[in-house]
């Protein structure tokens, strides 16, 4: 057995072992697998701004945190539900920035989900009853990506949605006309 | 052997039946463009079949000639360039035939294209269709903005009127395809495309997305209802009206749920506080032929199934399973049924 053959065998073995790491998360499309299968535990209702003892992590976190489909869906909902209206695309505006390291009500996924569901003083509306629990948790999963909290292998390498205007080569020729006849 | 013959006969009969099904068919002959396409198709078939048959005849003749002549005509002798005058003439004729055929096909194709471009020049009705995962947002454009109207997953068209459909996409590439009228046209995010056609037959036709666009691509269909002009105008007037207020106590409970809870976040019902623009417009939901972009036929049972658990019927669809209490479910369906 030549040393070259042995090197090849070792390489193949390493590749085969590495392949087992490719097992991605489950994609669940049903909105309520959780109440049926997972004990949702205590509600993380008690939020103490600026400190306090955090409650134990909600078991649902395991299903949404670091879950690629949940993050992608959450990003679409973040845009469609007009979160960008106040938080911009994470940079903040009327609402606080989401892409920094400061979390008034906690940066854990269950704490973010509670913030979305319950609303917070000074403007954050309550989304409970307007969105389903599943949608709220998906948005929370996405919000964590804005400050780079989930691992890099589950987040998208490009943003959802269209960027940039129509190419100028496709802009139709529009003959200028005075504005007072525009409505006729 | 007998079973095989029966199977073959059954298959042939079934294929024959296909030609009478115009619901979704390239051979429906239901539009000016479809007619042009069919004429072109049959010209191509005739020319290609004639040429194919000729080639096969010459091939068979060649093989037979070689067999008859034994070794006398072997090409490997090197004498094949000193061809027979008859063969020479034949080859020139053959080249001329091929050129004529190709030029003829090009001319036929040019005239078909010209006729198909006519509808775009004579546009009488303008509709904007936006493809979304996985349904069709449809807006009827009118010069008078108060007549502009929004619906979903169902096109109504007046017979004999050239229509131009502007195509847009909100997410990924889709393709608009109603085989009974015209060929496919892609909907590309960030670009405007369009397709024009003139329906010539009254009836109900099916269109569908023809570009793979995600898990529910197969459930992204729509209905095209071609009507006489008067019926079409009546339908348009009806669609412009706001939703009727609920008339029964059960429908009122449903109205309150739909307009204040999860439903209103995504759906619009004009004349009510529900104004979400994420999902299909529900103002005249119960007057449509299908639920969830051609997934289910419209009906009370299917409405119950769809509202109770959309993720079992169309897994991956953007419509979430809302955890409705049974009483709320009855009320919501009772209200949705009044949206005629």
Describe this protein's structure.
The complex is a heterodimer of chains A (184) and B (340). Helices cover 36% and strands 0% of the residues of chain A. By secondary structure, chain A is mostly helical. In chain A, helix 6 crosses helix 7. The longest helix of chain A has 17 residues, at 3-19. The termini of chain A are far apart. Mean pLDDT of chain A is 79; it is low at 33-42. Chain B is of the alpha+beta class. Chain B has a five-stranded mixed β-sheet with strand order 3-2-1-5-8. A five-stranded mixed β-sheet of chain B has the order 4-10-9-6-7. Chain B is elongated, with a radius of gyration of 28 Å. The interface between A and B is medium-sized, with 21 and 22 residues.
Topology:
The complex is a heterodimer of chains A (about 180) and B (about 350).
Chain A: H1 3-19, H2 34-37, H3 61-64, H4 68-80, H5 84-87, H6 109-118, H7 133-146
Chain B: H1 2-18, H2 32-69, H3 85-121, E1 125-132, E2 135-141, E3 149-152, E4 154-158, E5 163-169, E6 174-177, E7 185-187, E8 193-197, E9 203-209, E10 221-227, H4 229-240, H5 249-260, H6 262-266, E11 290-291, E12 296-297, H7 300-308, H8 310-313, H9 326-337
Parallel strand pairs in B: 1-5, 4-10
Antiparallel strand pairs in B: 1-2, 2-3, 5-8, 6-7, 6-9, 9-10, 11-12
Helix pairs in contact in B: 2-3, 5-9, 7-9
